[in-house]
Amino acid sequence: MTASMSQCLMQMVQTDYAISDYQSEIAPRWCSGCGDTAILTAMQRLCRDEQLPPEKTVSVSGIGCASRLPHYMNAYGFHGIHGRALPIAEGIKIRRPDLHVFVTMGDGDCCSIGAAHWLHAIRYNMNMTVLLHDNNVYGLTKKQASPTSPHGMKSNTTPFGATLNPLNPLTVTLGVSNVSFVAQAVDWIPDLLYQILRQAYHHKGLSFIRILQRCPNFMEHRFDDWVRDPSKMRILTHGDGLRLAPDLSRVYKNQETHDPLNMERALALAALEGEIPVGILYRNPNVPCYDELRAGERPNTPALVETVLNEEFDKVGIWPDGAAAQVGE
Amino acid sequence: MTLNGKQHQAETAMLSRQVDGPGGAAPQGRTAEILQEHIVEVVSDSGEGAQRCGQSLAAIAARSGMGIWTVEIIPAEIQPPHRSVAGASGNRVRMAAHRVTNVGDEADLVVAFNEQVLLSRLHAGEVKPGATIILENMWTHDPNPEIARAYAKVRDEVRAAGYRLFEVPMEAECQKSVPDPRRGKNMFVLGMLCAIYSLDAELARAQVRFVFAKKDQKIVDANIELLDAGRAWAEANLDLRYQIPAPPVTEPQVVMNGNAALALGVVASGMEVCAMYPITPATSASHYLSSVFEKVGCVVHQAEDEIAAATFAIGASYAGKCAVTITSGPGLSLKQEAIGLAVMAEIPLVVIDVQRGGPSTGLPTKVEQGDMMAAIFGGHGDAPKVVMAASSIEDCFYSVITARKIAETFNMVVVILSDAALATAQQPYPRPKFNADWLAPPVNQSAVPEDARPYDWDERTGIATRFIPGQPNGMHCLTGLAHDRDSHVAYDPEINEEGLLNRSRKLAALQTTLRLAPVFGDEEGELLLIGWGSTRGAIEEAVKRLRADGHRVSSLHLKFLQPMASGIDEVMRRFDKVMTIENNWNDPKDDPLIGGDNRRYSHLAMLLRSRWLVDVDCWGKARGQPLKPAAIVDAALAKLGKA
């Protein structure tokens, strides 16, 4: 066998990843019927279809039910602290453009304790795919109202009903400068979830997907109206956007051709009452990315460090002959 | 080491050079009084340039071979009201014929642009009795009679109090050269000071050219004219002529403040990412780093908050690029949860805390050594991390290099404590010679052996090899939850304790490599002073003075606060009494409510007492000011019962 042939074969071996190559040895411990499972499956399918090397894939999360996801992926995972998944992911990406970075957060993680990071991450627009698992409730801490809980929702901290209107993660995200990709998916239409995730992965910049996700334990009937009545789901399509398989198209007839560069319409769709839009609300591939703007122009070599240090020392140097190389303060 | 002050004087006198040349000759036959050292303060309203004047004086003095130490006098507000006591802005310069390691005691000479800023220094007790005061006298003729009266009142009081006052028509003299003397008076004053201290005229002009290097030639010329005018005026009119005979510089030096040294230390350490959030007095380190870091392909990320700065740095470190986050006390508090994550997940991280007065917002621009306990024990749970303190400007530079190495060798968090005193003080130190070993090795991307586990703790050291994203076969999910050797979440009691033990063991392994600094002074005696951080220079100067007066006092300065080097116990037991000297709070013993059961000790004293069961006393101040050698001398004498 020639060297080039064996190389070619090795490459084939290395890149022939199956779904199981992205499944860790730990079985998911989410509740039966939890929407997180559908999201994990979509992630693993994406990795397989894109043949992402597991060692080059990093899944970052905060704290909460959703944030267990990295444990179930056979990839590098970073199960961090509550609310801080985004800055951790930014740090990972800033000097490692070779890594594929996915961020998983719950609604408490993203929209409450980590809200500052959410806004700024959108503004930084670094190359990563961000999944907001939004089940409208705190699950891991056993049913407290979250910032996305509907008004009047009874929970352990709101026994008489949530007093405030929920925060809308879509309109908030769309309102941040440098926003470049905003989509919405639901766990009960896995094919569209997968398609949206794949579009997000291919987007240059930060792609933000809010995924409405059912919590069978604490919010059992939250999305029943929409699950049972497909006409309340508005599917957004466009030329190179989602493709509805014929059987899905027959069920989800409420479709809209939406130009993802149309911010005005995107905001209107994001604010829809009664209907849940599914698809890409906004996409702009021409927004600058912080990781690219801040990429080092020169590699950090010992010779370069020595040169630059000496330049700085010269500015403040005193020499034995009493003079300064350059007089400095 | 020379502990005898008189002997040191004799040495430096022998090394002194004759002052000659156009700028150096004593005027009109006056001979310069030879001094071993002098402390000069230049104060003005904010924006009048006293800081630049003081810094330039220090730079010229340093180039002349003198030892210098400068301290900024900073108002709390960006634009405080004019002519106000609270608005005093400027610089203190301690110049000496020998190396200077601290701010010194009270000022010998003060130049004030108005009488109110002078008052602020007098009220603060920063001016020596009988000191020389050079005061702008334009206020005598101020059209506002209240201002003229206020000026006259202070002038008369100052004179009556025995200060040696010189009223100088700075404004009027500057007007002969420039139409708006408010901008430029500082260079006139610099010229006067160069004349007073017999500093080389050409060196001074070169300094002015450097300061205005980015400005129009006309501005440079105007400022040099003012500089020369100030010199000429002082030579003709002031009966003040000093010379501080400095030995010639024998090896290349660099002059900078502690924050610049920290920033260059970051560059030299091979770290590539600094994530920070603006906070006084740490920010200037990041400012300077921002201007240099990109030249070596690295990045300073100004995060959205302190927590993001810490977690961003953790992310970068996790991905193989050991990172640093620079902050001050309130920021350290905010970062504590993230620091705990780095401890738990064993991610290397360097945290620099430029301490200021606390708690809460406290004294943002002023010094305090108040964060030691927060650095060591601040987070929840058992979170062993390394805490070291920089004791000089030079030490700021090298501490960062050491910290990065320890962080990556042990996969630990290393906190470097500096403070506002070091941050803004300038001092010359030997120019570092670059060493490629300072830098970090390239990111490991080699395949991980099939049977290797992400937390395969070494039995002797507790260290586990860290797998970095990109390494084939190394995939695992890092977590802040309790975990086993596979990084799997584990709530099992044995596994939890295994993790605790190994994280703690790393600290012990590091501890066995530490060496205690030598005792300053004799190895035994009546009183041992122990300090840490920026107080080193002041403590050692105090010890020198005490020993020169025959007192059996020595000092020990700790670089590592967690873990501490072996041998401290043995040193302490060779002295009759042990007392820490710290720039932080401790309860006064003479307070009616305070006694043995409730007295709160300074940080280091508490630690030394608890570890070695030695009755360590403490003396400290939390006035927001650097400790002065004279105050430490008094405290030591009191402890010896000789006050």
TrEMBL record, chain A:
Keyword Protein biosynthesis carried by entry: no
Domain of life: Bacteria
InterPro entries: 2-oxoacid:Fd_oxidoreductase, PFO_beta_C, THDP-binding, TPP_enzyme_TPP-bd
Domain Pyruvate ferredoxin oxidoreductase beta subunit C-terminal: from-to ranges: 250-293
Keyword Transmembrane: no
Keywords of the record: Oxidoreductase
An annotated GO BP: small molecule metabolic process
Domain (Thiamine pyrophosphate enzyme TPP-binding) ranges: 63-211
GO molecular function, one term: thiamine pyrophosphate binding
Protein name (Swiss-Prot/TrEMBL): 2-oxoglutarate ferredoxin oxidoreductase subunit beta
Organism: Tropicimonas sediminicola
Lineage per the UniProt record: Bacteria, Pseudomonadati, Pseudomonadota, Alphaproteobacteria, Rhodobacterales
TrEMBL record, chain B:
Oxidoreductase among keywords: yes
Highest rank taxon of the organism: Bacteria
SUPFAM superfamilies: Pyruvate-ferredoxin oxidoreductase, PFOR, domain III (SSF53323), Thiamin diphosphate-binding fold (THDP-binding) (SSF52518), TK C-terminal domain-like (SSF52922)
Keywords noted in UniProt: Oxidoreductase
GO biological process: response to oxidative stress
Domain Pyruvate/ketoisovalerate oxidoreductase catalytic stretches: 47-231
InterPro entries: 2-oxoacid/accept_OxRdtase_asu, Pyruvate:ferred/Flavod_OxRd, Pyrv/ketoisovalerate_OxRed_cat, Pyrv_Fd/Flavodoxin_OxRdtase_N, Pyrv_flavodox_OxRed_cen, THDP-binding, Transketo_C/PFOR_II
Residues of the signal peptide: none
Domain Pyruvate flavodoxin/ferredoxin oxidoreductase pyrimidine binding: 266-455
Segments for region (Disordered): 1-28
NCBIfam families in the cross-refs: OAFO_sf
UniProt name for this protein: 2-oxoglutarate ferredoxin oxidoreductase subunit alpha
Organism expressing this protein natively: Tropicimonas sediminicola
Organism phylogeny: Bacteria, Pseudomonadati, Pseudomonadota, Alphaproteobacteria, Rhodobacterales
